[in-house]
């Protein structure tokens, strides 16, 4: 059986090499492989599906669905204009974005993937921002939520809440750096204040609630579908002898721990499982942060495809988006490691369960750093404006 599967895999790779330009044929072959895996290992696929469904219904849906409804209501009642007035200069000027983008940025900061991408596309669909601005905003407003980083990754997985502040700060710094790398730092169109405010008074609350709930259900189910699909694919890959064969070769060549290589590979597919696997590795803490920092900003193929479900209908490039996510992941990885060395150079951490001793108040340092991170660019911008 294994020999036949090896021959099948080789034949598929040959076909992929010969027919690389034929997307429909490649997708058909990949789907056929998944069907074959389902037939050969039904329990593995069923467990993967149940695991993905449990993750969605018990962890993702309860927080995602109400947040979607509230955000949709705010969009209908001119929330974008209000947020742009209150937070626009603080958030958007340092990132080279028009004030109208502040709503999507705040949603990204509060709730994380994939809502930043969704509301970036919503702003474009409502003609609040133009195509080029939305293209930049998609990458800048795609970040993990503080609750996920500090709660799930740092506290639950790594066993140290303070490390979450380091990872969160690294994500914000890499986001600001990527805003300078992505071309097109321009200012978008302005709001017609009176027109927008007067229109918001004429909207029927019942219709807004109905449309917001419909949109929330549709978006939530779409996200849930991706989570379940990638959970099944992850289960197939994790239990595949081909995966273990490749893993063994990697271990022999690079001499790295099995859980580290397994977590890194699976993390590229779905970041939560990857971060969880890597956090349990008995390796240097700095190396853990290097890989976890990359996975958090890269987000994994599961979330990238969730974002693409909002982007594709407007013609935004998935390749271009993915390219900048890789760059942001590398930046976050590097910044995470540097911050770890600066803040924890007197600490000794060897295992997952050990606590890190800190000689000063990291919360105060984190708050100060965030303050400087947003205030200094605004001051610099205003100085340049006055000089010019």
Automatic annotation (TrEMBL):
Q: Where are the transmembrane segments?
A: 5-20, 26-44, 56-77, 97-116, 163-182, 219-237, 285-305, 326-344, 364-383
| UniProt KW keywords | Membrane, Transmembrane, Transmembrane helix
**What NCBIfam families does the record point to?**
spore_ylbJ
This chain's protein is named Sporulation integral membrane protein YlbJ
* Annotated source species: Clostridium liquoris
Gene name, Swiss-Prot/TrEMBL: ylbJ
